[in-house]
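Subgroup meeting minutes
Present: P.N., E.W., G.H.
Scribe: E.W.

1. P.N. recapped why we're keeping a running log of single-chain structure predictions: easier to compare across weeks, and new members can see raw inputs and outputs side by side.
2. G.H. added today's entry (241 aa).
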Amino acid sequence: MEKKIALSWPPLIEGRLIKRYKRFLADVELNDGQIVTCHTPNTGSMLDCSETGRPVYLSQSPNPKRRYPFSWEMIAMEDGLVGLNTLLPNKLAFLAFEAGVMEGFPKKAIVKREARLGASRLDLLVTSEALNGQPGEEIWVEVKSATLVRDGRAYFPDAVSLRGTKHLEQLISLTGQGRRALLLVMVQRAGAQVFSPADFIDPKWGAALRRAAAEGVEISVRGVDLNLREASLGPKLKVEL
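Output recorded in log:
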């Protein structure tokens, strides 16, 4: 049985979404009637998961110097909770690789966050254990968070993503050098069994993903199971390009 990989939530504060605006801000009415402006840790459009009036769950930073102490973590949609913090999948992925539970990847590895690659960075660098005097294999990993799910199919991206296409080009460059590269998509919403690129939103990213697959970039998609206590690594999803 696969070891459970989970992150516990800090105390969550419930409210109702008034509106999201300026990309990284949202106004929320808390259950006590107080209206707060919170940080939205998500660069996407949050298509199909930012409906006014929906229950939302916030965390509160203990840092008194933060301009916006509240962060928007989840929203409750008709199909269940949706995780909106794009940093959470990176943290789960780090723990999963460190624990050696990712199928097809090293059971023992050193995992480095924000690994430098030339003038830029990728989310993770996983280096397997050295054996018989030989250095461990390096696996470069870029993690993406998906929240758009329709009719059992998860999609990424939910907005045109030039940065996301650049990341795919970096992964392609790595495989061209004979190195191992992985795109890991984490779906923070229930109900998905299959993943596909959102060609109807960003056809260039979809084309880049298919080229990446043809060039040897590995693609893995995992669900994220959410409740009000924790977020945990969920099952693998089928990939259809």
